[in-house]
């Protein structure tokens, strides 16, 4: 896109403020994220000393070897159990928040979230098939990932067959596909009652890891999706004025919408394949960012990633401590916060969007 066009785009959306990420929000978001990470690493059934954890992290730097770290047992808890879980929470939370903001941008709908196009229902059905067939721990995420992509493909095929490129048609198709896939999943679960507990445990969402395998398995997909979404944040600002107006400014609205939806779906499918169905992150976090820092996607997307990561790490911390030594599904915690917030958004969306 030419520089002249770029200047025209900047002046075409004067109501979108701020257009750059203010330093106070950048440093504030990073500080909150760092605090959440340290809490996630130190708090739990096996409490770890904050100083020892910080020392262990600093000692990862080349040429640094500080004394006063953790003993062997504590180091094993940190690096083999606690750290993979926190890192997975950071990745999943950031991805779900980014995807939610991206969906809301391309559909211009404040109620859009990562499960809008059938990705959650498809992932749930895929995981259910893997669980009832006795699949191992590696098969379940792969089946969920495949099911999520298949759900979105079905939504697109149905939506385009009845309404072309209409946003409303895609949303209604997503509702229909999700309802059908959920009914199939329920039928399969009921027919295999011996696996019912495991299936519903996955549906409620969890961040259980057995090391770094889950993190490494989804890292490439989430990284690519996040980069694509962040690279389109300026174009999402242009789309906010409407697809016709964006077209007159030289922005291919249909292509931008397709790329953003595909990237958000790929990242969401990867995230839920290892975490289960964790809801409301994609609705709650982008709206909080808009209320605090403005509506420009050049601000919303990076801050949503940071706040989404923070939110899920804190939610997971609550899930594994509030009923200790037991543990709640993290999806229960996010729903407890997200459901009332969703109600507020639903009531105010007609006035504020």
TrEMBL record:
It comes from the Bacteria. It is found in: Cell membrane. SUPFAM superfamilies: ABC transporter involved in vitamin B12 uptake, BtuC. Its main location: membrane. This is Iron complex transport system permease protein. Keywords: Cell membrane, Membrane, Transmembrane, Transmembrane helix, Transport. InterPro entries: ABC_BtuC-like, ABC_transptr_permease_BtuC. GO terms for cellular component: plasma membrane. Gene3D superfamilies: ABC transporter involved in vitamin B12 uptake, BtuC. One of its GO terms (biological process) is siderophore-iron import into cell. Belongs to the binding-protein-dependent transport system permease family. FecCD subfamily. It holds the Pfam family FecCD. The chain crosses the membrane at residues 25-44, 86-103, 115-132, 138-158, 170-188, 258-285, 297-322, 328-346. It comes from Jiangella alkaliphila. GO terms for molecular function: transmembrane transporter activity. It is a multi-pass membrane protein.
């Amino acid at each position: 896109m030419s520089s002249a066009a770029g200047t025209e785009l900047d002046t075409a959306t004067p109501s979108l403020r701020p257009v750059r990420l203010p330093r106070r929000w950048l440093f504030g978001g990073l500080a909150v994220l760092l605090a959440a990470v340290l809490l996630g690493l130190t708090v739990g059934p096996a409490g770890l000393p904050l100083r020892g954890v910080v020392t262990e992290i600093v000692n990862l730097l080349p040429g640094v070897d500080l004394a006063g770290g953790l003993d062997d047992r504590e180091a094993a808890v940190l690096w083999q159990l606690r750290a993979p879980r926190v890192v997975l929470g950071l990745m999943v939370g950031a991805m779900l928040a980014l995807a939610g903001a991206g969906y809301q941008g391309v559909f211009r709908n404040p109620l859009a979230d990562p499960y809008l196009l059938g990705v959650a229902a498809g992932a749930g059905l895929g995981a259910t098939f893997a669980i009832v067939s006795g699949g191992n721990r590696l098969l379940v995420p792969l089946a969920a990932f495949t099911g999520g992509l298949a759900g979105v493909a079905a939504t697109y095929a149905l939506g385009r067959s009845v309404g072309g490129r209409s946003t409303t048609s895609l949303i209604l198709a997503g509702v229909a596909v999700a309802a059908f896939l959920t009914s199939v999943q329920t039928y399969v679960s009921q027919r295999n009652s011996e696996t019912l507990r495991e299936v519903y445990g996955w549906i409620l969402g969890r961040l259980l890891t057995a090391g770094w395998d889950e993190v490494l398995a989804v890292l490439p997909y989430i990284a690519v999706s996040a980069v694509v979404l962040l690279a389109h944040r300026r174009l999402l600002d242009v789309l906010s004025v409407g697809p016709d107006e964006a077209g007159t400014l030289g922005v291919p609205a249909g292509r931008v919408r397709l790329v953003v939806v595909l990237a958000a779906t790929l990242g969401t499918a990867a995230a839920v394949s290892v975490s289960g169905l964790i809801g409301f992150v994609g609705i709650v976090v982008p709206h909080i960012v808009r209320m605090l820092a403005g509506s420009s996607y050049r601000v919303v997307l990076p801050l949503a990633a940071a706040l989404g990561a923070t939110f899920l790490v804190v939610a997971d911390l609550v899930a594994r401590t509030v009923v200790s030594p037991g543990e709640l599904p993290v999806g229960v915690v996010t729903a407890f916060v997200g459901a009332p917030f969703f109600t507020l958004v639903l009531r105010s969306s007609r006035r504020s969007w």
